[in-house]
């Protein structure tokens, strides 16, 4: 009888240990799976909030449509002005149509950048100071896109490294949500296709 009790107690102890061990393993599995789920969640979040998930490439003077916006880069303008290093100030002649019932502001710093020689070039405030005094039909940033209407004018600018042969003008049609950069419109332009300002 005592032997049976001892055997029963020993079996209970072994079972308790195995349950504890399996719980401990389950906890690790659960933690690992949670961490991989949260890691997967982060990746999908990055993907959801990622920049430029949808790329639209068009030619100069060709319309592109995204996010209830029609964008056209009419020309890239070399103003003739340069930085102290001899790098040219360039500007963008654009038409942006808004098919929504709400007007909104866009800014060159948030909505545009240029790719040249694998580097990103962003708006430079010095170019705006130059343009407000010297370029007709220039619109300082930010500028308004009217509801169910269009904006047409010269915006920018950018200081382009001298001797750049090709560049890509990139535009985010964010509407009034400045962080909505899931769409990007890209226009490739060669140096020969840049207009000199008269």
Structure characterization notes:
This protein is α+β, with helices and mostly antiparallel strands and 198 residues long. The protein has helices at 2-48, 108-111, 125-134; strands at 54-58, 64-66, 69-82, 88-98, 104-106, 112-116, 119-121, 143-145, 149-159, 166-171, 183-190, 195-196. A five-stranded mixed β-sheet has the order 1-11-10-6-7. Strands 2, 3, 4, 9 and 12 form a five-stranded mixed β-sheet that branches. It is globular, with a radius of gyration of 29 Å. It starts with a helix and ends with a strand. The model is unreliable at 9-49 (pLDDT under 50).
Estimate the helix proportion, in percent: 25-40%
Structural class: alpha+beta
Oligomer designation: single chain
Q: Spans of 5+ residues with little confidence (pLDDT < 50)? A: 9-49
Number of strands: 12
Radius of gyration: 29 Å
**For the terminal residues, how far apart are their CA atoms?**
111 Å
Number of helices: 3
Arithmetic mean of pLDDT: 81
Residues in β-strands, percent: 35-45%
Strand order of the largest sheet: 1-11-10-6-7
**What string gives the helices and strands in order?**
HEEEEEHEEHEEEEE
Overall geometric form? globular
Report the biggest beta sheet as strand number plus sense, adding barrel if it closes.
5 strands, mixed
In short, what is this structure?
This protein has 198 residues and is α+β, with helices and mostly antiparallel strands. It has helices at residues 2-48, 108-111, 125-134, and strands at 54-58, 64-66, 69-82, 88-98, 104-106, 112-116, 119-121, 143-145, 149-159, 166-171, 183-190, 195-196.
């Amino acid at each position: 009888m005592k032997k049976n009790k001892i055997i029963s107690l020993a079996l209970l102890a072994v079972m308790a240990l195995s349950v504890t061990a399996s719980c401990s393993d389950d906890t690790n599995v659960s933690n690992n799976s949670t961490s991989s789920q949260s890691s997967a969640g982060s990746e999908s979040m990055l993907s959801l909030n990622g920049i430029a998930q949808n790329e639209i490439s068009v030619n100069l003077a060709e319309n592109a449509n995204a996010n209830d916006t029609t964008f056209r880069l009419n020309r890239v303008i070399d103003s003739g002005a340069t930085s102290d290093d001899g790098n040219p100030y360039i500007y963008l002649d654009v038409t942006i149509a808004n098919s929504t019932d709400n007007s909104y502001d866009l800014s060159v710093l948030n909505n545009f950048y240029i790719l040249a020689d694998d580097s990103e070039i962003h708006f430079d405030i010095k170019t705006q100071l130059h343009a407000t005094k010297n370029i007709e039909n220039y619109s300082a940033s930010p500028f308004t896109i009217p509801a169910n209407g269009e904006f047409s004018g010269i915006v920018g600018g950018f200081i382009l490294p001298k001797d750049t042969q090709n560049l890509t003008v990139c535009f985010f049609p964010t509407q009034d949500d400045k962080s909505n950069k899931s769409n990007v419109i890209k226009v490739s332009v060669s140096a020969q296709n840049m207009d000199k300002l008269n």
